[in-house]
Amino acid sequence: MLKKTIAEKMEELTPGQRETARFILENPKEAAFLTASQVGERVGVSESTVIRFASAIGYDGYPALRSAVKDLLMERLSTLERIGEYTAQEAGSLFHKAIDSDIDSLGSVRSTMEVDAIERLGREIAGAESILVVGHRSSRALAYYLFHYLSWLFPNVELLDSETGLEKITGSGEKTLVIGISFPRYTTWTVDILEYAKRKNLKVAAITNDYSSPLASPSEIVITAPWNPLSFIDSFTAPLSVINCVILAAALTLGEEARNKLAKLEEVWKERGVYREKERPGDFVGIMKNFGKQE
User: Fold this and answer.
1) What is the pTM for the complete model shown?
2) Which domains does the chain have, with CATH numbers?
3) Which residues of the chain are under the pLDDT cut of 50?
4) CA-based torsion, 229, 234, 237, 240: positive or negative
5) Is-contact 226 105, C-beta < 8 A?
6) Phi/psi of residue 173, each to 5°?
């Protein structure tokens, strides 16, 4: 996969080559049909820099790289075709465009899902002595969501804040897992926390938009999700879907233990009157019995 190839070579690239990588990963629809010279113009680097970038990541010249970009694009075409019926209805509506953009992102997640990385992070979460979740500004909503649901299963999870984050990292043991979440324009605090955690030899994972993200470099596990800016709003529909998969992966790792913990929580919620509705919509008991079982 092109994204993985670039990620593995990212630290070895020159600044100009890194900018080229970011452009190609963020704009595959455009890059797939541009010459090396045209890519250079878009990025602000020379044509030779683009050609050397192709060689640096293991391709036999720029044409071979462009072919790989087209392959990446082709993986997504079936998804784009499926949402065509939506985009044709109300093309002039800002609201419809916003929803269509989210549908596109979810389709991209579905077709390029990094199952191995998600399952690995699930295992790391289940095996960690301590789990620290990091997210700032708009990404803090995602970080809280991950923290909230993990806390149902893991009492050792904590959501870091900017006031005491460094102190928490400093006092953490070597079996601590740090999960950072950030998307463009990437908060400095989150990047700093992950880099510091790496220097402390803690295990670091990132949920971000691409392997060119500054969160990727200090992370052993990187899970990517498309990020779409809608006017001044960061649309986190796709990242939230990926986070759901991470939570499920961690729960599946626990197996029967997860089912027992969730069943006990349901009893406590009923006793304490946490929810107005006494029963969860749907057959919650049946869902719990079959949780994680293969048909």
Assistant:
1) 0.69
2) 2-80 (1.10.10.10), 115-254 (3.40.50.10490), 256-289 (no CATH)
3) 78-82, 85-90, 282-285, 294-295
4) positive
5) yes
6) -80, 170
